[in-house]
Amino acid sequence: MSLLKTNVITSVKYLRSFSVLCRKSNQDHHLKKCPILFNTQRWLFWERHRKGGYDTTIKTSNWEHLKNGLVELKHELKLFAKELKELYDMDPLLIARPGEIDLLWCFNSPTVLEKFVTTCDSDHGEGYSSCNLEMSPAGRALFHGYLDTRVPKDGRIKKAGYCAMRSKMQRKSFKRASTFDWHLYNTLVLKVRGDGRAYLLNISTEGYYDITWNDIYHYILYTRGGPYWQVAKIPFSKFVLGSKGRLQDKQTRMRFDKVTHFGISCGDKIVGKFNLEIEYVGLEFDPTHDEEFAYEMYKTDKYIVAV
Amino acid sequence: MATKILRHILRLPSSHFMYRRWESSNTKVAVYDPFANKPKKNKDTYLEAIKMFENQDNRRRGHVEFIYAALARMKEFGVHKDLQAYKALVDVLPKGKFIPSNIFQAEFMHYPKQQQCAVDLLEQMEDNKVMPDSELEQMLLNVFGKRGIPLRKFWRMLYWMPKFKNLSPWYLPDELPNDTLELAKMAIHRITSVDPTMKIEIWQTEEIEACIDKTWIVSAQSETQKILLSEQPPDEPLVVRGPYEVYLKEQVVTYFTLLGKVRPEHKDDFDQDDVSNLKKPSGIPGFIGQTTLPVVKCTVHEQDDGTIVAVCATGSSSRDSLLSWIRLLEKYDNSVLSNLPVIFTLTAPSNDVVVQETQPAAEDVKRVQN
């Protein structure tokens, strides 16, 4: 029985299915032992992996886990004490002050950079771009790298060329997942110094169910370029909903209390170096902006949209 | 034995029987590529090759393979941003045959290879920022009918692409000029657009007699920057920083900045909440508070890594052209530069430098004299 099981699993593994209607078996069985990621399974109704098959977990032994846990315990207890204190204080922010910017991250020290993770296509052997998030000579965060749209010739990848930075998961003490709560604000404010490229701002609102795991709200950050700083104020109503990079037909407003990540990515198909210096990312309440959602939400004919 | 047979059966991909139809066309067949041996690669020959394919067989066998081959060769022929070329490719598909005639056909992707091919074509249009028009919609409707997947893709494109087309606050024309001087002018105009009083001037280095590198300089300096430069103390050096890059779509322009010393932040000790001594200034009815401007006026040019005094782009980006720039700045209204030291911090000369340099590549201080 166990033999049957394993065989079924392996045969399923080498079957790529993009939908129920379009399947394809992998002929490249010889790549079995290769560290390249295979797992591009996408079933129609159900998704197995939260990261879409990209296995990024670092394998550690139980002993290592135990040691790491003890080291982190101190930190977690501190965090827990802070949470308790906050609970005792009962002093939440109830109104946003119009015209004042509440900073999410002010990139003035290297410790702030640790709250971010950078990813590019070469991390998974899917391209040749590279990127880095460092302190700039002016003492700010500098997201820089090289964007390369060359496609690796493995017959599997059709397009390549992205670099991204994303905030780490928001969490409470003892590794409990948490979310941002931005319901007081309606505008995202960034002070940046770019190089004339267009960047993409990503606000992930991952939900509980698998269809919401890849929900990201996007908007474009155009940079002027040059030595002068620019302040970009972007209302949240302008952000468009995409899933796995595809704009969705049925658009909805962002759930401000369920924001899980914030990120910036560079993927404008222009090969070359890129530099984006960021001073801060903040939130603002703009009382003059009363738009709730900038895109049409009317009903269309049946079986045309979102099918 | 039984387990062996079972294992053998299970080892076959489960899709093998059900989806044999899809896999049959995956086998690699050498397709005759009519685009490979065209002597001239331009739009006319591209359209001609498509016409030849249409005429050689009125059943148009292998049109999906042909369209994929044609899509892959678009960049080579320089038609990847040409709507007419895409329309010619859609025209290859036969009309009427692929329109589903009942709900089952409509639901289960009638002619999937052909539909996928049209979707890939539209995707390539989207990637190359080609906006479709209503004529293409009509063509696709004639091929796939209104329930076709390519039509859904098309409508999505027509819905979203115009929304994002003119979003950039810094306008750029569809076709950028080929002339580097024009590009440099556009780039300098864009990066200095923070200050509306910015004046952009084009100088030739020939005006300076001592110059080796004969080229042009696009320099930008506003009246404010002139004042800031004149307030630079003579014992503190100015710094030429660069080369930095700015992108105008795919084009890259290198620019340099002239930085002055970091100016102290203006401190305003005036207590706004102090109402003990309110004075109403004469002449401004109803105005309460300070009317005089702060002593150090804060401008956009004062940043905490230095005060930007001027910005330029030169034809060769060489050190000699930058030296000429400093001298030209001095010649035109910045006489203070004659007794200010200037540091050139170019880490390495950029690749298109013509001039032979004798100085070491590290920092070298040049006292500008005339």
Automatic annotation (TrEMBL), chain A:
Its main location: mitochondrion. It holds the Pfam family CIA30. Residues 106-278 form the NADH:ubiquinone oxidoreductase intermediate-associated protein domain. Keywords: Chaperone, Mitochondrion. One of its GO terms (biological process) is mitochondrial electron transport, NADH to ubiquinone. It is found in: Mitochondrion. It comes from the Eukaryota. One of its GO terms (molecular function) is unfolded protein binding. The keyword Chaperone applies. One of its GO terms (cellular component) is mitochondrion. PANTHER family: COMPLEX I INTERMEDIATE-ASSOCIATED PROTEIN 30, COMPLEX I INTERMEDIATE-ASSOCIATED PROTEIN 30, MITOCHONDRIAL. Belongs to the CIA30 family. This is NADH:ubiquinone oxidoreductase intermediate-associated protein 30 domain-containing protein.
From TrEMBL, chain B:
It holds the Pfam family ECSIT_N. Keywords: Cytoplasm, Immunity, Innate immunity, Mitochondrion, Nucleus, Transit peptide. Its main location: cytoplasm. GO terms for cellular component: mitochondrion; nucleus. Residues 222-347 form the ECSIT C-terminal domain. GO terms for biological process: cell surface receptor protein serine/threonine kinase signaling pathway; innate immune response. It is found in: Cytoplasm; Mitochondrion; Nucleus. PANTHER family: ECSIT EVOLUTIONARILY CONSERVED SIGNALING INTERMEDIATE IN TOLL PATHWAYS, EVOLUTIONARILY CONSERVED SIGNALING INTERMEDIATE IN TOLL PATHWAY, MITOCHONDRIAL. Belongs to the ECSIT family. This is Evolutionarily conserved signaling intermediate in Toll pathway, mitochondrial. It comes from Bombyx mori (Silk moth). The lineage of its organism: Eukaryota, Metazoa, Ecdysozoa, Arthropoda, Hexapoda.
